[in-house]
Design a protein that fits this description.
It is found in: Cell membrane. By secondary structure, the chain is mainly beta. Helix content is about 10%, strand content about 30%.
């Protein structure tokens, strides 16, 4: 339709131009050529001579070509013509530049230019080409090369396209009318400078009456005020973009916009019920959860967060409520233990409110809600309850066995009031120092106490219901042992000093202090004095310094080391407590030779050893270490000696023919060929007499020692027996294949002096002719086999066997 109108307008223009003088020349200019046009420029030079531009042979304007040509023939572009062309074919037209020869071709004789392909302005809007006219014979240019442009005229062949498809956006709910949601943008590839092909207009196809779009800018706005997310959350809006300014015949494109209403805090929380009822056993511990309730909020996310609080309760400070942030539930917990016997139900008033209220919506509805919670306490068979959390008792360390230290008390909290039985957890009193009366809970002593050994005893008392022994309670009982003055003070350490022979009277030679295992309340106070029995003839005196120390002073002007080298000074130390305790401690004083300044030069040998030597404890430690080392050496020697003892070779004394040898060692495997010759055990008769054992020294290096056997008196006259035994002993001593350990060898020897004579057939060789075995047949059926063997005339071969 559009192309038809264009052709019609061109025809009308052609007729108009033909009716006027310059019609043909103007058409040629429009289509690209202008023939023989001379341009004269008037003006003067510096000398006043008029200037004139020389005439060009040919020139033209730019050509225009419509895009998307659909004809079957090549599209005509225009015609090139030179004034020098007289139509005799002597001029040839040449075309070069963009697309010359491919997209654009020229008839070298007529100068007609055609487009060979369908062109798209959106791909390339114009083409720059160069043309010239050359002599066909000489191939010389008749005029200078000129450049011209073929511009592609646009047609509306591209629909608008949106930059995104689909769009996703959100807008807060309850927004006022005209709130900007977002802006959509569509672009058109057609020429925006030519006609309305690229002029886009926006409209909404789907989404009314909730949203609207600006036709020129594509801005989407809300068309209704106060849209509620809780009513409808998601909207789908379809936007159309149409070119040609939205006129009929324009091309269009669409896109989808998904709009979500974002939540605002416009809804308060609400309890689904006004009354809740829960049950909790009285055994619930403080801090445990006894009830969970939840309010609902139509909002989501942060706007649905809520806080719970207890506004009133008939159990003050009994319960706490907190919010579980992950579930937005109100969790009621215990602060104090429940007691069914004291109170069987509680009523609480719970309030819930938004954590993050929006001030814009506070005026629309109430921001809080309340509900009543009734908690019923369930009765549970509880263990006994002590009247205290813990007990602290005191007892003097000198108290007698059976003394009551204190008492504990527990009762059954249930309404049944079951009797309670007491006992001590023996895991806390392994030494059985205390016991408790099972009926009244009195704790008394089973053993005497010593504060210095253990000042505190920590035990546990168990209370058990008499009717239900599985219900027990434990309570710690700390027993403090009070101190009594039952220890005498002693020297703080071992004291030993020396006195110079030239010492002066009242000269201090040593300061001593005391210690006491007791711990009196007012602190220690020690008194020092010289023993009464030596005070009259004492060589030294004791001066109490009144600060729990005392000084040992000389009483004479001189001492003689030769007369007496050592003095033992008895010092009595007593404490100030009741009853007073005292002890006598000895101070050793050595007499030494000193210089004028009082420095010791020479003492007796004992003093030197004690002064320069080690303490008694160190010497005892050294002696113990030496004894331990000696004991280890002796044990090692005994073990070594036991390992070298030979084991008995024979295992069974009843079997005198075989000897079982136990070596108790592990061989070297198949590669060990140096131990024993197994052939000897398999065939003892094939042993070579000179063959030596491979696991022991050859006997030639250690010749056998002949041992003399002492026979009993009854056998001393039996020379044949003596010779038999000696021969067997000598054979065993010289046998290289004998076991390496001593073994028992048993032999049977009858001798030649037997009254019954020998029954062996070995001696029958010499007396065969004189023997008569016929009497064997008279001995009965038991000797029939023997009579058959010897009674008949046997062959010599049989007898020899």
């Amino acid at each position: 339709m559009l192309r038809g109108r264009t052709v019609l307008l061109l025809l009308v223009l052609w007729a108009y131009l033909c009716s006027h003088g310059d019609g043909l020349r103007a058409l040629k200019r429009t289509t690209g050529g202008r023939r023989g046009v001379a341009l004269t420029l008037t003006g003067q030079d510096a000398n006043g001579v008029p200037l004139r531009r020389s005439k060009r042979g040919w020139m033209w304007n730019q050509f225009f070509l419509l895009e998307e040509y659909t004809g079957l023939d090549n599209q005509y572009v225009g015609k090139l013509h030179s004034d020098g062309d007289r139509g005799d074919g002597s001029i040839r037209y040449v075309l070069t530049g963009d697309g010359a020869g491919t997209l654009f071709i020229i008839d070298e004789n007529s100068g007609d230019i055609h487009a060979t392909k369908r062109l798209d302005r959106e791909e390339k809007a114009y083409y720059t080409l160069r043309a010239k006219a050359v002599n066909r014979i000489t191939n010389t240019s008749l005029e200078g090369e000129s450049e011209f442009i073929i511009k592609i005229h646009d047609i509306n062949d591209n629909e608008p396209k949106f930059t995104k498809d689909p769009y996703f956006t959100h807008v807060p709910e309850m927004s006022p009318l005209g709130t900007v949601v977002m802006q959509v943008t569509a672009t058109d590839a057609d020429d925006a400078t030519y006609g309305n092909s690229a002029r886009v207009v926006y409209s909404i196809l789907q989404g009314q009456p909730y949203f609207s779009v600006d036709p020129n800018t594509g801005v989407i706005k809300t068309a209704l005020p106060n849209m509620d997310r809780e009513t409808k959350e998601n909207y789908v809006v379809v936007i159309q973009a149409k070119d040609m300014a939205g006129q009929m015949g324009g091309l269009s494109g669409t896109t989808t916009v998904s709009i979500t209403l974002s939540d605002v805090n416009d809804n308060p929380p609400r309890f689904p019920k006004s009354l809740y009822e829960f049950k909790a056993p009285e055994s619930s511990e403080p801090g445990s959860t006894v009830a969970v309730l939840r309010a609902t909020d139509a909002d989501i996310g942060r706007n649905a967060e809520m806080n719970y609080r207890i506004t009133s309760s008939d159990g003050p400070a009994m319960f706490d409520i907190s919010t579980n942030r992950s579930t937005q539930e109100g969790v009621i917990t215990l602060r104090k233990p429940l007691d069914f016997e004291r109170k069987r139900s509680y009523t609480l008033r719970i309030q819930v409110e938004n954590s993050n209220p929006d001030p814009r919506f506070l005026r629309y509805a109430a921001t809080t809600d309340e509900a009543t919670v009734k908690l019923i306490v369930e009765d549970v068979d509880e263990p006994p309850v002590f009247d205290r959390v813990s007990y602290v008792m005191e007892v003097k360390e000198d108290s007698a066995v059976g003394t009551i230290v204190g008492s504990v008390s527990a009762t059954d909290p249930d309404s049944s009031r079951s009797p309670v039985r007491y006992s001590i957890d023996r895991r806390t009193d392994m030494d059985r120092v205390f016991n408790v009366h099972p009926g009244n809970g009195s704790v008394f002593m089973l053993r005497t106490l010593d504060r210095e050994e253990n000042p505190w005893h920590n035990i546990s008392v168990i209370a058990t219901e008499f009717n239900n022994p599985r219900l027990i309670s434990r309570i710690p009982v700390d027993i403090r042992v009070l101190d009594v003055n039952d220890n005498a003070p002693t020297f703080a350490t071992y004291y030993e000093t020396f006195v110079c022979e030239n010492a002066k009277a009242n000269q201090r030679i040593q300061t001593v202090s005391a210690k006491d295992a007791d711990e009196p309340i007012g602190g220690h106070r020690f008194f020092f004095s010289l023993a009464h029995e030596v005070s009259g003839k004492a060589n030294f005196t004791v001066r109490d310094n009144k600060d729990n120390t005392a000084g040992i002073l000389t009483r004479r002007n001189s001492y003689s080391r030769l007369q007496r080298s050592t003095y033992l000074v008895p010092v009595v130390i007593s404490d100030g407590d009741f009853p007073m305790q005292s002890s006598t401690n000895t101070l050793t004083v050595r007499v030494c030779t000193c210089d004028r300044e009082g420095n010791m030069q020479l003492c007796n040998q004992e003093a030197l050893v004690l002064t320069a030597g080690l303490s008694t404890g160190a010497l005892m430690a050294i002696i113990i270490c030496v004894l331990i080392l000696l004991l280890i050496v002796v044990l090692f020697a005994v073990l070594r000696r036991q390992q070298r003892k030979k084991e008995p070779l024979i295992i069974s004394k009843e079997d005198v023919r075989d000897n079982v040898v136990s070596y108790n060692d592990e061989g070297g495997g198949e590669e060990d060929t140096q131990a024993f010759d197994i052939g000897t055990l398999r065939n003892p008769e094939a042993i070579e007499e000179t063959k030596q054992r491979r696991d022991i020294k050859p006997e030639t290096l250690n010749p056998p020692i002949r041992r003399t056997v002492v026979l009993p008196p009854a056998y001393r006259d039996n020379s044949d027996v003596r010779e038999f035994i000696n021969q067997r002993l000598q054979d065993n001593d010289q046998d290289p294949t004998a076991p390496p350990y001593d073994s028992l060898a048993t032999y049977a020897y009858e001798g030649s002096g037997s009254v019954a004579e020998s029954l062996s057939s070995l001696g029958s060789v010499t007396t065969e002719g004189d023997q008569d075995y016929n009497y064997l047949s008279e001995w009965g059926p038991r000797f029939r086999k023997l009579a058959d063997m010897y009674g008949g005339e046997d062959s010599d071969g049989y007898r020899d066997s």
